[in-house]
Target: N-acetyltransferase domain-containing protein
Amino acid sequence: MTGISVRAARVEDAAIVANFVHALIDELSGGKAPAKQGVFDIAQALLAGADVSAAIAYAGNAPVGVITLNQCAAIYAGGKFGEISELYVRPDMRSQGVAQLLLDHAQQEARARGWARLEVGAPSQPEWHRTLNFYLRNGFDEVGPRLRRLA
Model:
């Protein structure tokens, strides 16, 4: 896409990352996102570590999207692998190739870190079918539902 660039996020970008992740949580939860300050604090702490990375998409100087990656490890995966934790594009910039550029960045990061795979959890279906279809078009396979239990 012309005019869109993607760069790795730094700790000092925590506010940008947090604002996008907060918007994602708010959209997926129907307006029930936690306080922005808490999301910022977590983003700042995680971006300072080695196992979580993020990239920001820009249209000119304006941030328009974010992707966060988490390094995981599992025997079934053959060791370390990457997980796309969050991917969000501003609503007015959707269907313009921004998510594709962020995913391309994630694939480059996976290769650089020696990850043999990337995994992602898609939001509930059928409400978010466009999200699922995006990942399927990009070579991801459905392997079943993701479950969680809060501690």
About this structure: The chain has one domain: 4-137.
